[in-house]
Amino acid sequence: MTAPLKLSDPVKVDVALGDRAYDIVIGRGVLSSLGERVAALRPGVRTAIVTDRTVAKHWLEPAEASLAAAGIPTSRIVVEEGEISKTYAGLEKVSEALIAAKIERNDLVIALGGGVVGDLAGFAAAILRRGVDFVQVPTSLLAQVDSSVGGKTGINSPQGKNLLGAFHQPVLVIADTAVLDTLSPRQFRAGYAEVAKYGVLGDEAFFTWLEKNHSDIFKGGSAREHAIATSCRAKAGVVSRDERETGERALLNLGHTFGHALEAATGFSDRLFHGEGVSIGMTLAAQFSAKLGMIGEADAARVGRHLIEAGLPTRLQDIAGFAQEGLADADALMALMAQDKKVKRGKLTFILLEAVGRAVIAKDVEPAPVRDFLKEKLAQKA
Ligand SMILES: NC(=O)c1ccc[n+]([C@@H]2O[C@H](COP(=O)([O-])OP(=O)(O)OC[C@H]3O[C@@H](n4cnc5c(N)ncnc54)[C@H](O)[C@@H]3O)[C@@H](O)[C@H]2O)c1
Ligand SMILES: O=C(O)C(=O)C[C@@H](O)[C@H](O)[C@H](O)COP(=O)(O)O
Ligand SMILES: [Zn+2]
């Protein structure tokens, strides 16, 4: 872990992928440099910005102004906010609009928004005319620390999260930390779960720093930039070593086997945002690791304690509407987890913990102890 940045230093993190390498540019105000950076990267290019209604209200005009100042023609495609757009219908809308805008093979798609817009626009770019380049301009904390980096793009199926997609790396990521000032507190907290994930899975020193400094990240300032840059460096390192998740990259899925099943069980609705699912999933993964004797109870509890301190849900009972609408039973959750992309020959793979800061990939996990564990958790009092 490196020392916190000064407030005004934009920082560049390199995603070292050979001829598909790209920069992540992080800093307050860097959105205004979008046009000049795109012009330098792709002289003469035309662009289409894909965004959602809420982000458009706050940040579309500044993005368009920056492109216009650099002489770059652009058009806009605005989708509904939330997972409702990360669907077949959302993909059709964006793809048809890109075709109507005559975005050519050498043009650029710009994803301006959170993880939903990034995953959706990135996937549309991956399949449009068999592949058009795209730029990520992440506007949520989650997107700045995670979804804009690494090239996983896609949409959900009603049967599971991100079940259709492609690996398609962006050519540039512009993460303006000032745009997070308009993000709702609940969405900011949800994104924080993915920040904490990097500490839990591979960097105990970062986790300790988060325990002491997390409230400053929520306030803004240099701690926020430091947390985003540290997270991006961690992800860039993993992605550059294992772009297509044949090994190590699966560690980034910590908390997601449970989390994605919970998102599907709540219909990809506002009852549970992705980051909230990851927070509960990460806590469950720590507790399940303790149950298997892989990590001490105290270390497992440390993970959940920090997420609670950050205001995140950590229990199934914390999911909105749990008491009124309930949740799927253990068998239904097991069926949803069977759609996880880490499943091999029908066997579950989990990311489990040996210590805070040391996650491991556990293959061939027997279903019975997982089902029993879920039954136990579902039966807990609210
Ligand atoms: N591709 C990957 O590697 C990866 C990684 C993590 C998550 N994801 C995916 O990302 C999605 C979650 O991303 P998310 O949490 O950003 O959700 P999101 O894109 O739905 O954004 C969250 C909400 O915040 C609003 N918003 C975004 N930026 C804003 C801003 N600056 N000001 C005001 N409002 C703003 C959006 O309109 C939306 O309502 C999930 O679908 C998840 O599966 C993908
Ligand atoms: O980049 C990755 O790899 C991740 O696993 C990051 C996750 O935070 C992210 O939610 C990702 O979309 C999940 O991937 P999936 O392959 O399980 O859909
Ligand atoms: Zn995630």
Structural features, described:
Residues 191-343 form the 3-dehydroquinate synthase C-terminal domain. The structure is a single chain. By secondary structure, this protein is of the alpha/beta class. It has two domains: 11-182, Rossmann fold (3-Layer(aba) Sandwich), CATH 3.40.50.1970; 185-379, Dehydroquinate synthase-like - alpha domain (Dehydroquinate synthase-like, alpha domain). 46% of the residues lie in helices and 18% in strands. It contains 14 helices and eleven strands. It has helices at residues 34-41, 53-69, 88-100, 115-127, 141-147, 185-202, 204-219, 222-241, 256-265, 274-291, 297-309, 322-325, 330-337, 367-378; strands at residues 11-15, 22-27, 47-52, 74-79, 108-113, 133-138, 152-157, 160-167, 172-176, 348-355, 358-365. A seven-stranded mixed β-sheet has the order 1-2-9-6-5-3-4. A two-stranded antiparallel sheet has the order 7-8. Strands 10-11 form a two-stranded antiparallel ribbon. Helix 6 (185-202) packs parallel to helix 10 (274-291). The longest helix has 20 residues, at 222-241. It is globular. The two termini are 38 Å apart.
Protein traits:
single chain, 382 residues, alpha/beta, Rossmann fold, Dehydroquinate synthase-like, alpha domain, 2 domains, 7-stranded mixed β-sheet, two-stranded antiparallel ribbon, 14 helices, 46% helix, globular, binds nicotinamide-adenine-dinucleotide, binds ligand LNCXM5UN, binds zinc ion
